[in-house]
Amino acid sequence: MVVILLGPPGVGKGTQGVMLTQSLGWERIATGDLLRAARREGTALGEKARAYMDAGNLVPDELIVEMVREHLAGLSPSVGIIFDGFPRTLPQAESLDRVLPGVGRQVDAVLLLEAEEDVLVKRISGRRVCQESGRVYNVYFDPPRVPGRCDESGAELVHRADDQEDTVRHRLKVYEELTEPLVAYYESGAAPILRVDGAAGMEAVKETIRGVLTSTLGLES
Ligand code: AP5
């Protein structure tokens, strides 16, 4: 099974993606996380991606497609996959549709998380991440027990460089221009689109996703 999490920055793709992989035992391929790991490791890909990411622009398709292809090749054929933040452009979606049959897969469903811009900006401005444990917090909605410190690792929490308000608003425009056309692409028959109200609380969104995956794909999460 292959499920894509689609939606604007801050809508909760990462939050729900982590919860889903835990409940389903699937693998999550999150291109933003892979790029940030490449930057921390100082790889050539990480260095090429840095300026695009910090400015809130998309990293070129060919770099992303190659990174995803390498990642896919390393996965067991039987494990389910959740794509988080990929595909993000029409060429990426078309490339995925060419690559998946080669590994005996297809896109089974697209979960489209939706919320208003004000909700997204507030969520992103409150987001703090732990680079050691990978856990994501929110100072308004999901704060750590000790302010500024990860509950799991104790490490200092970080405010992402691309989470400043101006950059966030630019990322939202990039989403509208380059990623939103994917909704029409999948609606035209490439895969079923399942719309989810992403503005609800985390547990409510999780329950909605569980319901639509069960009724559409017969999954028990
Ligand atoms: P990426 O890391 O993928 O960022 P994004 O898509 O902009 O998404 P975010 O991580 O900002 O948000 P999210 O939807 O995952 O929300 P989250 O769950 O964290 O990409 C970063 C950059 O990498 C891109 O700009 C681009 O440069 C590059 N890139 C990545 N993929 C690429 C690709 N395919 N092609 C080209 N370039 C690519 O939640 C946000 C906050 O809200 C958190 O604090 C969370 O705790 C809180 N929250 C979540 N859900 C709820 C809820 N229901 N109620 C209250 N708070 C909530």
Would you kindly provide a written description of the structure presented here, covering whatever features stand out?
48% of the residues lie in helices and 14% in strands. The two termini are 13 Å apart. The radius of gyration is 17 Å and the shape is globular. It has 221 residues and is α/β, with parallel strands linked by helices. Helix 4 runs parallel beside helix 5 and helix 6 crosses helix 7. The strands form 2 sheets. It has a 5-stranded parallel beta sheet, sandwiched between helices. A two-stranded antiparallel sheet has the order 5-6. The structure holds BIS(adenosine)-5'-pentaphosphate. The site of BIS(adenosine)-5'-pentaphosphate has 35 residues, from helix 1, helix 2, helix 3, helix 6 and strand 6.
The level of helicity is 40-55%
> What is the count of helical runs?
9
Q: Tell me, what's the shape?
A: globular
Q: Report the end-to-end length measured between terminal Cα atoms.
A: 13 Å
* Average pLDDT number: 94
Order of helices and strands: EHEHHHEHEHEEHHEH
**SSE class:** alpha/beta
Uncertain runs are: none
Strand content: 5-15%
Which structural traits does this protein have?
221 residues; 9 helices; five-stranded parallel β-sheet; 7 strands; 14% strand; two-stranded antiparallel ribbon; binds BIS(adenosine)-5'-pentaphosphate; globular; alpha/beta
List the SSEs and their pairings.
Blueprint: E1 2-6, H1 13-24, E2 27-30, H2 31-41, H3 44-54, H4 61-73, E3 81-84, H5 90-99, E4 109-114, H6 117-125, E5 127-129, E6 136-138, H7 165-179, H8 181-190, E7 193-197, H9 202-217
Parallel strand pairs: 1-3, 1-4, 2-3, 4-7
Antiparallel strand pairs: 5-6
Helix pairs in contact: 2-3, 4-5, 6-7
The protein binds BIS(adenosine)-5'-pentaphosphate.
